[in-house]
Amino acid sequence: MLAALLLMALGLLGLIVRRTLVGMLIAVEMLLNGAGLSVVAAAQLTSGNAAAGQLAAIFIMGLAAAEATLILAMMVVVYRRFGSVETSALTAIKDAAL
User: Fold this and answer.
1) Bridge partners, 86 (sequence order)
2) Residues 90, 82: contact at Cβ < 8 Å?
3) For the chain, what is the domain count?
4) What letter does residue 85 receive in the DSSP assignment?
5) Contact, 24 vs 12, CB < 8 A?
6) 67: domain CATH number?
């Protein structure tokens, strides 16, 4: 459980600190991995069904893979359109358009 909490905390910290979309994607992946590990640990440590916890973790992994695919596709579109994936540059472009 401590490792899951550490992964989730590092993911949240990375999401706040990172300036690029790729760094934010990695941070979100760490958050989801921490959640999956937490589900598996909770299923193993309680009297519940351990297989249900493992199935939930597989579902979370599938969700993370789908999320990564969509975010990477969006990053390609943003890079082709604006020439950068830096969040500060995208904010400046948005402010200039208004």
Assistant:
1) 20
2) yes
3) 1
4) -
5) no
6) 1.10.287.3510
